[in-house]
Amino acid sequence: MSEQKLQSQTVQTTGHAWDGDLQEYNNPLPTWWIYAFYFTVAFALVYWIIYPSWPVGKSFLSGVSDVTYVNNKGETVTRHWNTRAVYMADMNAATAQQKPYFDKVAHQSYQTIAHDPEMNGFILSAGKALFAENCAACHQAGGQGRPGFFPNLTDDDWLYGGDFETIHTTIVGGRRGYMPAFGEVLSAGEINQLTHYVASLSGIEHDVAQAQAGSLLFHSNTAACFYCHGTEAKGRKEIGAPNLTDKIWLWAGVPAAESGRAKLAAINSVITSGLNKGVMPAWGERLSPEQIKILTVYVHELGGGQ
Amino acid sequence: MQTGLEEQLGLYQKRIPIFTRSIKGRFRNLKTAVLVGAYAIFFFLPWLPWTRADAPAQAVLLDVPGRRFFIFGLTAYPQDIVWLALLLFIAATLLFFVTGLIGRAFCGYFCFQTLWTDFFVWIERKLQGERPARIRLYRQPWNREKMLKLGGTHALWIAFSFWTALTFVLYFAYAPDLFMRFFQGKAAPAAYMTVGILTLTTYAAAGLMREQICTYVCPYGRFQSVMYEPQTLAVHYDVARGENIHGRAVARPGLRNLDERHAKGHGDCVDCNLCVQVCPAGIDIREGLQYKCISCGLCVDACNTIMDSFQFPRGLIRYDSESNLAKPTPAPPRLHWKRLNILGYGIAFTLMSGYLIYSIATRSSSDYGVTQIRQPLYVVLSNGDIRNRYQIRITNKSEHSVRYQIDSKDLPAAALDLGNFGQLQLKPGHGALIQASVRLSPRQAAHTSEFKLNITPQNRADSTRVIPLRFDKPETLR
After folding, report:
1. pTM for this one?
2. Half-sphere exposure of A164 (CA within 13 A, CB side)
3. ipTM for the predicted complex
4. Is residue B54 less than 8 Å (CB to CB) from chain A?
5. Looking at beta carbons, which residues of chain B come within 8 Å of A157?
6. CA-CA distance, B48 to B43, in Å (whole number)?
7. Which of A65, A83, B26, B248 is least crowded, fewest Cβ atoms below 10 Å from its Cβ?
8. pLDDT, tens digit, 9 for 90 and up, residues B134-173
9. Residue B94 CA to chain centroid, in angstroms?
10. Chain B 376-415, CB below 8 Å of chain A: which residues?
């Protein structure tokens, strides 16, 4: 087959002939392709040396590259290259970048932070992230709460007080709101009188005679509502007893009720069965002092604060 | 034995090496001028200082991590991406305009592939000699001379590619600082990777692949042929004059002057092949207009040189239009710009450039963004008032400190609460994010579903920015 010594511009055959005339094309792979393949082989060899690669018994070749990071306990650790270590190193770098801001938060007073446009911007974005991670499960993403369960943080009513210090105390120590069930100690008629009185406080349709009787009961030692809600029914922030004279309802489903009768029924139900679900956990142990400070300013801004 | 196998072509054509001869002339000078000008700008611009208040003193600096792009006195921000988009549109229109008028002038004179190849060939010629010397070197077996000369050429190419890549990177950080850190091994990994990749690609594209980039890789070269029309000026060989009846002929005795040649029916082309030898694309222009031609005009220079030496008139190869050459007696070549598409491209180019200049000249020194907080859309307050909240983002893009006043004329006094930031002082290049709330009584809320917020930069000539906003309220008040 000397004729098969062809120019490089033509297609070669493998040089064999079967059955006399059956030949096979020899189309070698393009040179550039072959070299690209050799390159990938070389690349793989280098990769094996640098990064963790082959399993060896119960262990593996860990590669020559390593990653140094500071773990959660504050120890500096050096490990062979792995994505968890890289992640930790990245987190260390991010923490270092945030440090100047957190330092400022730690050293500045609430007032200074709230008046500095740059810090205010930091609070709005860092606070949003912290809030979404820790608070939004109950208070919802925007802090709007859930009627009957979790208070709305964006309105101007603060059960325990809306100044920086009180918000801080609330976050650190948590809160526990409680109202006894009056269904056990008062008659249905008495509860009905109280219901009309409470409705009268915030201008809901009510029976005037019933409300007057309710007012007497409210301020008497029998029902003793005024112990917690105050003689003017404006609540007591020390114990988180809500103001009954405003238009904001957390526990009784008044805003959602369509008819006057339904509104009264909602109030009645709360007085009858009381409340023992106003629980907020304490965050003092879970969050750092700076994080709590950021959340304090953030929550303060949500509702305008006090 | 099967027949016909030998005639089947392989899938890939082998590159035929091109050794271009250097030539002097008008178009060569133009190319050199463009090359020197472009290199001067590219290689020195990163080093040009420019005093700035709060940014590195570099005239052109593309600060990607800082998201600020300094171009002399102009600072562009990512929000100004429209300018970049517009600039690309303008560049495209300019390419269409120029190509429709004078063919692939961009390819021949301005394209970086052409410029770098041109310079690489210059290095090759300085080290290995003129075309015949290079061909001899190519053919001779490997010896000390060939190794030294070829090795030197490739080393210089790689060095220059490296310098090109490094210069490119210098546009993205403060040049003197990055330069030092780069050689101390302290620059960012991205810098080393970019320099590595660009060095390799520059070396491969301008040193090894050359015209193959234009022929096989570049899409622009291919689609520019769509803009060619019969009136487009392109490098043409005047076939009628060059070939006459009996074709071109070498200037043998008896064919030395035009009278003798015309008498024997030969054309003006003396078949010296110089036009082929100078061609960086390795084509013979006498075969007519072809897709590989980058319209660089070197064959025009080559042919004119020969015509001059024979004292024949110039312009056997020249910039001319197909329509003109098709005439029995071609007129002197001229620009045919009174064509619908050329005028269209021209008008589009002028309008867009005008708008870009206007947009940059009248750019606002501040950037505003106001969004309503949607969770919740509104809040009912303890006395029944309705409150909506908004987030206001202000960026001071000027080079001075600016005080901003935020107010609204549509709202009753005291309805708009800006917390602690009714007046806001912002440093140059800084931004602020503040919260505003609007509180209306149920009666007022019933009448308000929209209002306008005014943000006024106090000590700037800029006018007030008016931002329309929604006011949401419970369904009972709608």
Report:
1. 0.72
2. 11
3. 0.76
4. no
5. 381-382
6. 10
7. A83
8. 999 999 999 999 999 999 999 999 999 999 999 999 999 9
9. 11
10. 376, 379-384, 387, 389, 391
